[in-house]
């Protein structure tokens, strides 16, 4: 009877550990340390480079596995460089007893570090729900034991690796109007200093979410629309199983209670949130009007970005899953919409909400998009909900 896939994987891991122990014995203490330094530098380089080099690969799991492969390859290159340097010192150790002790310590170091490295890289991959490899990794007795005995501080590392490689908020949309680049004057830079900007800050929150089903960490913005209720885009929380919001220096757990992928809107229940709701405007903006985009671009600090309305129009286009066509009323804006702005409010100079930002033009023009206050108002009744809503699957389109 053949070995199961999980046990076959454990056999491979065991062979890797045997090779690591032999290498550690040969290199000794300093040689092993040098190889680990090289391995670490290579892994860090791979982690930083992966999002930029594999971003064009289609398929979430394929992209993630390509990232892990790149990290592993650079880690091996770094380790080999460290080994070459470490062997120079090892050759100088001549006394037999000293050499034996040095070899024993090197063996233990190598086995421990290789175990941690394998666990750190493969644990995030085991969270991919639909992969045969992921199922096998989850059922691996060896990885389960490492996970069981790993110190709490190390247990955070695999999740951090997954978040680094799969960080997403898409402030990008298909060009929804042939007239989206209606010429208007540049935004007024002085709008950044409007009194409405600091006044609105407590009610504009940063949203962080984790979608384990597709190994993604998502970020965006949101704003208070009712007591302990925050509105954002649906694509900011798509497929997530944990959501937090940051407001006035506090991080609060949130629950998605309304999820509308057709309108690209969501509402979060945030117990403990004391910030007041932002008022909605009764008067829609028109071409040439000033506006301010509020939110957390790049996942950074609260920021106000001046904008100017190009036009207001009804657009018939795809929902966030590109599965059906829906009609939404929206603004096209002259202004810069960045990653992290999605879900933030578009306000006028008095602080009233004109709309909710959801994306930017793909063609690189200085054009962003926001749903109007009327679309927001149509969703307000959902703030009365109290039960968690199904956040569906992760998005794979331009949203």
TrEMBL record:
The keyword Membrane applies. GO terms for biological process: proteolysis; toxin biosynthetic process. The keyword Protein biosynthesis does not apply. GO terms for molecular function: serine-type endopeptidase activity. It is a multi-pass membrane protein. It comes from the Bacteria. Pfam families: Colicin_V, Trypsin_2. Its EC number is 3.4.21.-. GO terms for cellular component: membrane. It is found in: Membrane. It is an enzyme of class 3 (hydrolase). Its main location: membrane. Keywords: Hydrolase, Membrane, Protease, Transmembrane, Transmembrane helix. The chain crosses the membrane at residues 6-25, 37-58, 64-85, 105-122. This is Serine protease.
């Amino acid at each position: 009877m053949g070995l199961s896939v999980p046990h076959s994987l454990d056999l491979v891991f065991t062979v890797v550990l045997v090779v690591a122990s032999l290498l550690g014995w040969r290199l000794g203490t300093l040689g092993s340390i040098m190889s680990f330094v090289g391995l670490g530098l290579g892994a860090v380089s791979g982690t930083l480079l992966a999002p930029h080099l594999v971003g064009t690969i289609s398929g979430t799991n394929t992209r993630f596995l390509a990232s892990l492969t790149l990290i592993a390859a650079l880690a091996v290159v770094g380790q080999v460089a460290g080994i070459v340097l470490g062997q120079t010192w090892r050759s100088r150790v001549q006394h037999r007893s000293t050499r034996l002790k040095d070899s024993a310590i090197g063996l233990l170091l190598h086995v421990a570090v290789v175990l941690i490295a394998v666990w750190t890289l493969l644990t995030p991959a085991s969270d991919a729900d639909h992969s045969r490899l992921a199922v096998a990794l989850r059922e691996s007795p060896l990885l389960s034991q490492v996970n069981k005995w790993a110190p709490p501080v190390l247990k955070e590392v695999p999740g951090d690796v997954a978040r680094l490689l799969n960080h997403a908020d898409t402030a990008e949309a298909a060009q929804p109007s042939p007239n989206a680049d209606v010429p208007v004057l540049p935004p007024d830079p002085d709008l950044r200093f409007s009194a409405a900007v600091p006044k609105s800050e407590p009610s504009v929150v940063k949203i962080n979410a984790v979608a384990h089903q597709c190994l993604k960490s998502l970020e965006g913005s949101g704003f208070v629309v009712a007591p302990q209720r925050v509105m954002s885009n649906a694509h900011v929380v798509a497929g997530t199983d944990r959501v937090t919001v940051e407001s006035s220096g506090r991080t609060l757990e949130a629950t998605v209670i309304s999820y509308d992928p057709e309108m690209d809107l969501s509402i979060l229940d945030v117990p403990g949130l004391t910030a007041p709701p932002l008022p909605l405007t009764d008067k829609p903006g028109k071409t040439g009007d000033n506006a301010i985009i509020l939110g957390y671009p790049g996942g950074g600090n609260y920021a106000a970005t001046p904008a100017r309305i190009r036009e207001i129009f009804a657009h018939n286009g795809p929902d966030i899953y590109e599965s059906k066509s829906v009609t939404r009323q929206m603004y096209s804006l002259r202004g810069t919409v960045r990653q992290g702005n999605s879900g933030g409010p578009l306000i006028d100079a008095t602080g009233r909400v004109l709309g909710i930002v959801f994306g930017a033009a793909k063609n690189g023009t200085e054009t962003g998009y926001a749903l109007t206050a009327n679309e927001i108002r149509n969703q307000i009744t959902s703030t009365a909900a109290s039960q968690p809503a199904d956040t569906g699957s992760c998005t794979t389109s331009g949203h």
